[in-house]
Amino acid sequence: MASPSNHTPPPINAPPDSDDESFSEFERLESTLPDPLKRSATSLLELLSVSTNNPHINPNQPYPLGHHASPSGSSTPAHPTLHSHLVQKLSESNSGREHSPIPLPKPKFDAAIHKPAMNTKQSSTGVLWVTERAGEYGFNPEDNHDWANLGQGAPEHGDTVPGSFKRPTSIPISELSKEYAPTAGIKPLREAVANLYNEAYRKNKSSKYTYKNVCIVPGGRAGLTRIASIISDCYLSFFLPDYTAYAEMLSLFKNFSPIPVPLSESDNYEVHLNVIKQELVRGVSALLTSNPRNPTGKCMTPSQLKRLHQLCRQSCLLIMDEFYSHYYYDDGCTGSSISSAEFVEDVNKDPVLILNGLTKAFRLPGWRVCWILGPEEYINALSSAGSFLDGGCNGAFQYAAVDFLQPLKVRQEMKALQIHFKMKRDYILGRLSKMGFTFNQDNTPNSTFYLWLNLSHLPGKLSNCLGFFHECLHEKVIIVPGFFFLINPQNLSRLEDVIWYNYVRISYGPELPQLEKGMDGIERILHKFGCLPYEI
């Protein structure tokens, strides 16, 4: 067990002991970040320094990370003699709050304890990092009534969605479920998954999924890890920004080469088919993407998905993370969903692996019951991998899940889900629009429960995702800084300038009262910095 930290977080709104100490605290906050991201705070301080010493610089204008050009074209780093002024800039507001103390991160490990063979450089994913920082300010995941956690990527899991079936409060434990479950999953659940996909997406197709095309896995990450373990000797492309946990999974295995493909901010990070063509031309034989996409909340259209399958059918494995496929609002909230399963020609020939599960759509993230669909040969390999990676999924929960997957029941459940979450999305967009954020058809999420929020119009500190995150901590609001969605497992230097330091991800997964609390907190922040278009 680690010994207590030498530094304890200052009470919220308490003044720092000195300017130097406050500056050091901000540096220590940055020091908890993974190595590729440790330039955001430096970037923020340099920006404030430049805007202070060069009145022609617009402090609201974002600059490339780690380099802020002065009017003469030179780079102007922050200087120790500017500490006092920078601290003032970091903490100033028009509402009279004198200080904005920076949270003091606790060390992850006790340096006095020997750790033979341990990788102490393993970094936290975005959600874990923000939860750790919030914990230093009093956030307790098991008792968080005072906080609005808009960072966790999970939907509300109670009986709070009108028209939804009641969440189970107990499950039967049969004698059979006490045994080890097969690493491919129990046959009844595999059959139920195959039948659900055939009914939803393959009614008029001669090639149908069977239980042999389904592998049950203990969570989405476990499914991705199994997939990563069975592919070899290939280039695997993935798009940026995307799900933060991909980074550790892609860096862990050395049997393939991950190739990040940054998407363009100018068209709201849409995946264009010509980009995929270019990847195939340069020899990519595996492609991983979330659809609908985390964190942007957008998804490919059916016509785009169809063309994607046509492009990849002969030479490229498609790994489709579809955990948000039922959070789809473009079809009138009828309970329909979007899936690559509709565009597979032959379930045993088309190289397509589809991941989904109870986690998001059925709002049961704690059950860790998920699945992979694909050709039988891939499923056999995935089952074998489970025997040495994770041992398989909980048997009792698998048996309990079979009844959830009746096609008519699922359609009714998904309709209720879509109506409710679209209402929450519209609430978030409405509140933020009144605060001065701009939304249009291109940057309005049409799926998932995430909003990829651009901060670049805000003044100084607030335009930087680390500065905005820090201010949110003071209001007991948790969001995820955008730079965590830079998935760069090989630390390719050419990706330095695509870190999204002026974006944050906001989740509208929690219940409406938490969303209201979170929006109230963000409104107070903007009021303190004098950048609301109205008075409160």
Q: Biggest β-sheet, characterized? A: 7 strands, mixed
| Count of discrete structural domains | 2
CATH class (first level) name of the largest domain: Alpha Beta
In the CATH hierarchy, the architecture of the largest domain is 3-Layer(aba) Sandwich
Q: Report the principal-axis shape.
A: globular
Tell me the CATH superfamily of the largest domain. Answer: Type I PLP-dependent aspartate aminotransferase-like (Major domain)
- The fold-level CATH name of the largest domain is Aspartate Aminotransferase, domain 2
Our estimate of the beta-strand percent is: 5-15%
Order of helices and strands: HHHHEHEHEHEHEHEEEHHHEHEEEH
Strand order of the largest sheet: 2-8-7-6-5-3-4
Mean pLDDT: 82
Cα gyration radius (Å)? 24 Å
How far the N terminus sits from the C terminus, by CA atoms, comes to 47 Å
| Low-pLDDT residue intervals, each spanning 5 or more residues | 1-19, 55-83, 91-108
Structural class: alpha/beta
Number of DSSP strand runs: 12
Helix content: 25-40%
Work out the helix count. 14
Protein name: PLP-dependent transferase
Domain Aminotransferase class I/classII large: 147-501
GO molecular function, one term: transaminase activity
Pfam families: Aminotran_1_2 (PF00155)
